[in-house]
Amino acid sequence: MRTTGREVLRRSIAGQRRSVALAALLTAGHQGGEALVPVVIGVVIDRAVAGGSAGTLVLWLAVLGVLFAALSTSYRLGARFGERAAERAAHDLRLDLGRRVLHPAGGTESGTLAGELVSIATSDAKRVGTVNGVLPFGVAGLAGLLVSAVALLTMSLPLGLLVLLGTPPMLYLAHLVGKPLERRSEAEQERSAFASGVATDLVAGLRVLKGIGAERAAVDRYRRTSRDSLRATLRAARAQAWHNGALLALTGIFIAVVALVGGTLAASGDISVGDLVAAVGLAQYLITPFSIFSWVNGELAQGRASAARIADVLNAPPAVGAGDATLPNPPAGHVRLSSLSHGVLRDVAFEARPGELLGVVATDPAAATDLLDCLGRAADPASGAVTVDAVDLSTVDPSRVREVVLVAAHDAGLFAGTVAENVGTGPLAAEAMAAAAVDEVAGALPDGVATAVTERGRSLSGGQRQRVALARALAADAPVLVLHDPTTAVDTVTEARIAAGLAELRCGRTTILVTTSPALLAAADRVVLLDDGRVAGEGRHAELADRADYRAVVLS
């Protein structure tokens, strides 16, 4: 079932209904008490001041004191529950988005920058969560209007009816006024999220940009993106200003009408002096609930726009479908590609036997990427099949595929934490670090494997990052391990050591090396050559080295 922005809002509110209800009850009490203040002052004037009774004056002043104490308490507690509901709702939305983005079936990353997803999971989730915090104040504004109307009805039927009958049209006009703000807020959030995504990608690739001298092109691209975001923000700001100004004008006209009617009634003697003071005070108080409505309406408009963006992520079609087939437990790790076509791959057929270390050389980098997608079931082939132990992976649940087949991408990033924490604490962690030559990395670091690593491993060199990432993949001890160019930033001596360690550690486990490294390919049991998206040859590294197409890729 497709989730709409309205459904996102509804679920967000339903998930925090207890806190929202308590906040609404307390803030409604606060606004109702605020509306009673001018009424009590009117009573003081009529009964104490006009009557000249000091005892009555002290009594009603005490009533005012109790009223203000109740106002303070109810507001503080109501605001606390409202803020709690807002923060918890935003937290729940972030969890929902995280689960969808990290779902094994994938799909959310298609056509969306990583920074854009981060923006949706932070600013948009916060705006939707804020709706839970502002709704109680909207209820409180209605409560204040209701108390005001009842008080005015007891003083004068025309005044009470004026407020009761005039409020619904005012609320409808406020809703119409908020429509342009909602549309422009959505555009602003889209452009802002896209700008964040571009900035994130540029920062992540800063070293590459500097290496190829593309700083100017990168700056120009971000400048254009930022300007688009700025224009959208300015349009949203103008819509916000127009929205607030229009509501303020409508509110002023309504209050002026109430004051005019009250003054006319007092002049004709239909209401007392105290009632007139109360009526004027209530007319001035009406600014508060209508200001609340203006604020709530603006937050709702932005919340609806953000909810629609969140719904788009939650509704992103999965890259691969679910499956109900099962893989053997434990798996033997026999991988077979049968007439597989996907992307640039055409009718590819080869196998990796159980426990074999198979090298795959692709003359086209796109062929390597498409092969990795199919092996890890990040995508299902257009035709043909990838099977593990004679089970078609396209019929297996993606999460189960990940348990059996681990694809370690070439650009695998590290996490903030220590070197040891990045590798993990499994039974093979120490052996994996030795096989990947991480012990050499640790020897060059101030605290060894306990040295802290910054986000994405930027505090390490490229070769150090690769070795830690390789150790992490080896430590997982997957039945089938697929490695993509794990040593491109490592010197030849260390690469030869890694090749020997990898072959020893993975002995008895199926390993597929998609690489052009001579050292790694020399350690492989067999090598498959993919040229122009097709299998062009197969044999040991030394045998294929006689081929010109193989030498051009591997030995050049």
From TrEMBL:
This is ABC transporter ATP-binding protein. Keywords: ATP-binding, Membrane, Nucleotide-binding, Transmembrane, Transmembrane helix. It is found in: Cell membrane. The chain crosses the membrane at residues 20-45, 57-78, 134-153, 159-177, 245-267, 273-296. It comes from the Bacteria. Residues 308-556 form the ABC transporter domain. It is a multi-pass membrane protein. CDD domains: ABC_6TM_exporters. Signal peptide: none annotated. Residues 21-302 form the ABC transmembrane type-1 domain. GO terms for molecular function: ATP binding. It comes from Amycolatopsis melonis. Pfam families: ABC_membrane, ABC_tran.
